[in-house]
Amino acid sequence: MTFIHQQPDTRRGRRALVAGSVGNLIEWYEFGVYGYFATIIAARFFTPEGGSEAEALVKTYASFALAFFFRPVGAALFGRLGDRVGRRPVLVLVITLMTVATTLIGALPTYAQAGAVAPWLLTFLRVLQGLSAGGEFGGAVAVMTEFAPPGRRGLYGSWQSFTVALGLLAGAGAAALLATVLTEEQLNAWGWRLPFLLTLPLGLGALWLRLRLDETPAFVAEAARETPPPREVVKAVALGAGRIMGWAAAGYTFLVVLPAYLQSSLGASFQQALVATVLANLGFAVTIVPAGLLSDRLGRRAVMLTGAVLVVVLAVPLLNLLQQPGVSNTVKGVAVFGAGAVVGLMAGPGPAMLSEMFPTRVRYTGLGLAYALSNAVFSGCAGLLITETIERTGNVDVPAYYAAVTCAVSVLALLSGRRIRVPNATEERAG
């Protein structure tokens, strides 16, 4: 059973699409930059004299994971607020918090400058980012799908995932540009700060767009309705998290963790790793919107199942291909492009699928929690688990196993025919 309120005003829908997605772009731009510069950040913040590079990289990913574990807290806090006072004011609040925290990372003193306080300051700002990111997804997807015209929720919701790709590509592009125009010494000394500082003008632009955003008609119409029973909402959150865990894990494995993996495990250069990541993210971006549009015709489940099954089947062969020294760079490029494209099949319909699982009165909280919990466990921990497991076992196939197993679980969750029973919802039931 799915719940949604239809709104045919296409002008306001397009405005909501831009305002809702722009904050998500900034969020994933920053998370991408942090992942792409993981080895440099490790050296600047987590490598006191005598510490090993592997140990520093693990600590960097631990800070990465910590931000993700604060996402569910942010989803619950800001989601509840968004379901009470409205989507617009909360989305304004979270983009402000994200912009401030990200900009300050670019101005932090390093371990050499501030000693042990440096990694603690970085971790504190990562926590603030996690809180704001947790409040971002639920509100943005609620706004986009609640303003979507009839029969276009998959298409509108897919723009949330598309801006993930744009954000990751922007982060990769910024990193690649800096690696090209700066020397290695300049990049390590101060160049890594520039992408974080760039968030300030981007965030101000996003804030301006959100201040012009209207409240969704669905929220206005349902504001006085009774809240559904918590038990049913919890069940829906758990099922939703299971359905997207493969998207979360495979997405971060192929799109964010890949650069550090290629450098630390396969001996690739920083530039080679970034090129591979850009290709993977291009593949991801190419399929997202078509997948969302296709899900409006064929159903969310069919399209997402296709992507999840393909990851289960292809993850290990793809990684083995990257490990072969005799394979041409062109073939490897096509392979990582294809890996990103497969993840896009899950990411395109995913936001609309989650939105349709919850009625308006709990939509911001419910879909935000499902997404945040899945990402906290299966995205935030991806770099840490993969790096630590490879370090302990020496098995360089770990990333492929991780993506394949999580997608297999998502297949089972997507095949579940259980109908979510949430009474007291008056919205149109779709699909």
Kindly report the average pLDDT value.
Answer: 83
Radius of gyration: 21 Å
Unreliable stretches:
422-431
Order of helices and strands: EHHHHHHHHHHHHHHHHHHHHHE
Strand elements, count: 2
Sheet with the most strands, sense and barrel status = 2 strands, antiparallel
Q: Helix fraction?
A: over 70%
| Global geometry | globular
Span between termini: 7 Å
Number of helices: 21
- Main β-sheet, spatial strand arrangement: 1-2
Derived from helix and strand composition plus strand pairing, the structural class reads mainly alpha
What fraction of the residues are assigned to beta strands by DSSP?
under 5%
What would you say about this model in short?
With 431 residues, the chain is mostly helical. It is 79% helix and 1% strand. It is globular and about 60 Å long.
Overall description:
With 431 residues, this protein is mainly alpha-helical. It is 79% helix and 1% strand. It has 21 helices and two strands. The chain has helices spanning 10-36, 38-45, 53-69, 71-85, 87-105, 111-114, 117-146, 153-181, 184-189, 194-197, 199-211, 217-222, 230-255, 258-266, 270-298, 300-323, 329-347, 350-355, 360-378, 382-393, 398-415; strands at residues 3-4, 428-429. A two-stranded antiparallel ribbon has the order 1-2. Helix 1 (10-36) runs antiparallel to helix 11 (199-211). The termini are close together. Mean pLDDT is 83; it is low at 422-431.
